[in-house]
Amino acid sequence: MRYRLGVDVGGTFTDVLLLEETSGSTYRAKTPSTPADQSVGVLNGVGKVCADAGIDPGEIQQVLHGTTVATNAILQGRGAKVGLVTTEGFRQVLQIARSFVPGGLAGWIIWPKPEPLAALENTVEVVGRIAADGSEVRPLDEDQCRTALRSLKGAGVEAVTVSLINSYANAEHEEQVGRWVAEELPDVPVSLSSHVLPEMREYERTLTTVANSYVQPEVSRYVRNLDSSLHDKGISAPLSILRSDGGLVQADKAAEDPVSLLLSGPAGGVTGAVWFAQQAGYSDFLTFDMGGTSTDVALVLDGKPRIGRETKVGDLSVRATSVDVRTVGAGGGSIAHVPELTKALRVGPQSAGADPGPAAYGNGGTEPTVTDANVVLGYLPSELAGGEVALDVDAARTAVATIADAMGLESPEAAASGIVDIVNENMFGALRLVSVQQGFDPRDFALVSFGGAGPLHANALGRLTGSWPVIIPPSPGVLCAYGDATTCLRAESARTMVRAFSDLTGEELRTVIADLADAAAAQLTEEGVARDAQTATYQVDLRYHGQGFEIPVDLAPEALGGGGDLLETLGATFDAEHKRLFSFLLPNEREVINLRVTVSGPRPQVAFTELEQGSEDPSAALLRESQVWMDGGPTSAGIYDRTTLQAGNVVRGPAIVTEMDSTTLVLSGHAATVDPSGCLVIRPL
User: Fold this and answer.
1) Strands 650-652, 655-658: pairing kind
2) Which of 126, 414, 524, 592 is the most exposed place for a label (fewest CB within 10 A)?
3) Which parts of the sequence belong to the Hydantoinase A/oxoprolinase domain (predicted)?
């Protein structure tokens, strides 16, 4: 037997899934996260899931991990002290930025500008210059450079970024400075912009590389610590980390390029959603991942998640390939409050997190949260995570009653219903960002919901968006871990090539793309993936001459075969995407800006388990009837055990379907049909 272990660390819970490849059997564990040291929560989950499966940890062949360590380092401001090396005259590159202020016309008055990740006093200039065409304008001054580096050493920097002008065109100067850094600051990690992001635009390239340096020591420590702890537990299997684009990278490579991990956690959920939605027969869908702290949404078209070139974490936006995930501060732990000034109910973005958590958890929390509201409404069972967390109904009612009192409502149930309605609207707004705002009608898509809290709100979100059916995969609370366990190794190679179509031929473009594909393939070959098992995808950033931005378009592999006009194909694809996004075209000449090739290894051959076929009658899985608050008043709802449901069973609302890691709510006027893949497929009656 071959076992793969998927691990996903969230803000509230750590999810662990053990997958046996041949049979498709799974074993799940959900344990409280340990923010002080995430590896503790991981090891607790590993021990629990191995005990449930009755195997020795040494039998695990692969460990696949989605982590939020890099994300949390950014959000909590606890990254490394970064020293930045720039070309002479570019010392203020991070301070000048793009002169963009978010918000309305008066945004500049109230916007607190975030501090750069590399302070100005820790930024030094070096003499030397590369031109935009890659030629050397002025050689490096070694003595001046070493003196500048010694000043960084004296400042006690913990990581160094080297970002020199036009290094994307010629990396020789950066690589030389990198060697001098290794000599002058031998124990300090160094990141070169020509390696992290070999693309034009000095600010974005510098910021992305500085972010890489900022989180590198923290990620390296965590990866080493987790790897060592797993070995101590008897697990000698290689550790791989999930990248923001949904692919895997070996742990040592991840530690070198941690900026590619900023959306590691959410990417795992999207990958897992694709895995199950395809089994249920759906390829176009929105994903809705609601956890304890936040909600992540994304759009999948033709079975492929939309990939973006910007990764945003808090106030930081870096150029890194990632699944186009949008996040809102709406989760089970989101705190409801009524501002004294407006007396209008608000939910989030503040969260009770894992400690103390919602009042219902009984860990000392007193503020009303979305979880407490669901408890008051009767939507949650008395225990969560397979008995790991017992719920205190009285504490939840007491907390929610403070909202009812503040708003003059007659009952905690009325306040709880308002809390749920508002958090649903917040998440509906996020779903519009990845659909309507991108030119897609959400009514053309299904909605795949997961996360510990997602299935509770999925039916309501389907009603708001008009996205049917709503699909609840098996084990929705640990789906991110399932995605981690069922994805593949991936590598990327990119290059800037600013050329107008009139100055370029299709053959030149094919040659450059082939070189990039070879470079990315070589990375996977080093990681043990045979060349004939690799597949490549191609992307080109294009713009009209004179535009200040470019649009990434996918290039089909068959277009590279030489049988057609490559530039004509690219141009037509770009025009169609520009028309979809902005509803107009320009007569200007098109320009190629960046080329990108991603090479992936094979996905694991994991067997699917099909449920036993049954009738429409789900009564064999009925546990009991319970009182819930729905449609403005009390009503009776059936509570069903998901583990005993059979394919073809139809659960009509109002109903609650319980399982170890999540709870699904079926609203009145809707029904959930059990698919042979194990998915619950909810539609209006």
Assistant:
1) unpaired
2) 414
3) 205-491
